[in-house]
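[Q] Does anyone have a clean structure-token version of this?
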Amino acid sequence: MNDNAFAIELFRGLPERYDVLAEVLSFGQNRRWRRELVDHLVLHRPGNLLDVATGTGGVAIALAAETEARITGVDISDAMLARGRERVRRSALAGRITLEPARAEALPYQPESFDAVSFTYLLRYVDDPDATMAELARVIRPGGHMASLDFYVPPSVVWRAAWRAYTRTLLPAAGLLLGGKAWWDVGRFLGPNIESHYALWPIERIVDAWKAAGMVEVGCRVMSLGGGIVMWGTKS
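[A] Here you go.
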């Protein structure tokens, strides 16, 4: 099973409670990280924007609320997209948000089609992060912008030990209690997956991938004592 197929299966049972439990199980930090990502894009006033790995559309809706942009959200999970379309329909922003199925590694858009691209919790689920970064940058116009967020591993020894204890024990148990077996499976998967990803792809290597894709002025901010990381850059 390739990384895309694994991600589809992993997230199949999550959409119904995803938005609530993502906040509860992150102690509200997911919302803070998303706010940081959004802030890095809205200051540039993009006219059209692509949100990759949009899931249930949380980032797309937040961006639409803060800009006048037309936003396209893409994801490989039909279940997550269906939930996202429900959320978009309930918002007052439905006229500016479109959610479509697509793979980050092969976006169905012409080069330089968008003023900005956002992506969330993505690079851990693709076979080739370098190629994926190049594809994301391909659809941004020169001078356009990109921002992302993902989980991270706390750099402090003390906080890393606490993070490991939470992700290995409390997170799966709380997921099972609040969301059922699908959340138990995700809870057991996340901690080891995050740690193994950064063992192969330390932040310096990810920054290099952004730069190799044509992004400049690449910056990052480690958040919540190292539980999350937000990155941003400009297309050269």
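[Q] Thanks! Anything notable?
[A] The chain has a mean pLDDT of 92.
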